[in-house]
Amino acid sequence: MHLYPDNRDVFEQITVLAPGLLGASVGMAVAKHSPSRKIHVWARRAETRVQCELLEWCHAVHSAAEEAVKGADLVIICSPVETIAPLVERIAEHLKEGAIVTDVGSTKSLLCHNAKAAMPAHAFFVGSHPMAGSEKSGLEYADRDLFKQRPCFVTPLPETPETVTEQVVRFWMELGMQVCTISPETHDEIVAYISHLPHILASTLCAALQKKDSKWRHFAGAGLRDTTRIASGSPILWKSILEQNREEILRALDTFEDEIHHFRSALANREWFEVSNLLEHGKHYRDSLSPDATEQ
Amino acid sequence: MHLYPDNRDVFEQITVLAPGLLGASVGMAVAKHSPSRKIHVWARRAETRVQCELLEWCHAVHSAAEEAVKGADLVIICSPVETIAPLVERIAEHLKEGAIVTDVGSTKSLLCHNAKAAMPAHAFFVGSHPMAGSEKSGLEYADRDLFKQRPCFVTPLPETPETVTEQVVRFWMELGMQVCTISPETHDEIVAYISHLPHILASTLCAALQKKDSKWRHFAGAGLRDTTRIASGSPILWKSILEQNREEILRALDTFEDEIHHFRSALANREWFEVSNLLEHGKHYRDSLSPDATEQ
């Protein structure tokens, strides 16, 4: 836990806006690592608020976001990407002096600039992207260990004070994350390749298979299952992500289309050296990824 | 266990040629389900033979394939796809009257026709493709439960006697597999889509990422790991598979390229209804796959 010189916790009160899989996991993880912190939540739906009232980590449930952020040292917005900047706008006036607002959205550039513009002068916004999650969504899949050993981006703008960035970095590190600070623009380029492109390939492969004989699905092996698992993710959430990061994704798609086109030519022309080369490069890259918690 | 009317086991002696991950898993699974069967093996490398001598399920180890198949009721060839028909040619004369030869290769059409042509009149070949395995290869990763609940194709030719097909179907079912008989040509079409295409996408994605900043690999989340796991498979084995099933794979690649091109256009032109549609179709297909043993 990070303390002020007088031993007071920097983030005594934390407010989670829109606790779904990620927001509720943040709440559970904070309760585990820093049990003295008070956690407030706001949920748009009445049924989620009722669920939240039953959760041990949840100290106060609010029906208005404006109320929920009052007195909060840290506000974490966990709603879908396109709703984050509008939410910042809504809570801006109600933030206490020196409050820090962050989020868990999968895209950063557009969002961070809009959120920053919506912030009042007396509080700070710095974007976060904890790369944890699942193809599942919803409070009921929350997991207090979701963030352990996972990568997390924190994306300050040039004008973000260093101490603000540092406090948010420390917050995610306390939950066990491996944090990297980076500009929102570089973040969006990286995730276009390592997260959004793989999602598009999984979805596109499934959409192509959907058109073939429906009996074929009974023959799906572990390879197809793993390759396509993320295609089960929420189309609504993913449409927003693709919309927010459209330009970077188009560039990543071009790179991929070049590669697959090159591969297809090699196969069509029986250029077996080229085919082997691509397989070797692919294996080399995959083997170089450090093992995942679930692979160990 | 399948018995003759006089209660004698149809497959008293089984010979596994080239016990790697799959062959050794067959041996272990047979020893578990039908402990009275004798299992002989032949391995090309001396070091594998030494390893095999230490394995409980392995009753005899041979340094010549011709010797190993003598007296066998069932021969299972587990070597890479391009070596299967040549091995059939080599053992043909040494097979006993009525012996059945099968394999575990990932492609079937070319292989089954070549293997059939190499067989003597007094024995039978029918192809198999147990869809089990791993991105790992080698005896040391063998697992007696590898075949449990997994799909398996058995691919008779029109001239294959029904009783031969039936005995091979029964053999895989006894190891817990869900067996489907199908022509070698249809098999190759199906696996081009559900197995070879996903492998190519995983390899191609990795090959494309290999060209980007090498630090990006530290940010790989579970999505990228799952999507690309199979790219760690042996490039040598996969080059052979692609070679043997080249035409069907080219057709599958065309279907995929159409789909991704369609997606790219929709994203480029901000046709969000189309983008959502593709994500929905992809999710619908993925959700319709019955849960895998490892997903339960």
Subunit arrangement of the protein: homodimer
Beta-strand content estimate of chain A: 5-15%
What is the terminal-to-terminal distance of chain A?
29 Å
- The number of strands of chain A is 9
Mean pLDDT of chain A: 93
Helix content of chain A: 40-55%
CATH topology of the largest domain in chain A: Rossmann fold
CATH architecture of the largest domain in chain A: 3-Layer(aba) Sandwich
Structure write-up:
Two copies of one chain form a homodimer. Chain A is an alpha/beta fold. Chain A has two domains: 13-182, NAD(P)-binding Rossmann-like Domain (Rossmann fold, 3-Layer(aba) Sandwich), CATH 3.40.50; 187-295, Orthogonal Bundle (6-phosphogluconate dehydrogenase C-terminal fold). Chain A has helices at 21-33, 46-53, 65-68, 81-91, 109-118, 162-174, 184-210, 222-228, 235-244, 246-268, 272-288; strands spanning 13-17, 38-42, 60-62, 74-77, 100-103, 124-125, 127-130, 151-155, 178-181. In chain A, the strands form two sheets. In chain A, strands 3-2-1-4-5-6 form a six-stranded parallel β-sheet, sandwiched between helices. A three-stranded mixed β-sheet of chain A has the order 7-8-9, with helices on one face. Chain A starts with 12 loop residues before the first strand and ends in an 8-residue tail after the last helix. The model of chain A has no long low-confidence stretch (mean pLDDT 93).
Describe this protein with a few key phrases.
homodimer; 296 residues; alpha/beta; 6-phosphogluconate dehydrogenase C-terminal fold; 3-stranded mixed β-sheet; 9 strands
Report a brief summary of the structure.
The structure is a homodimer of 296-residue chains. Chain A is of the alpha/beta class.
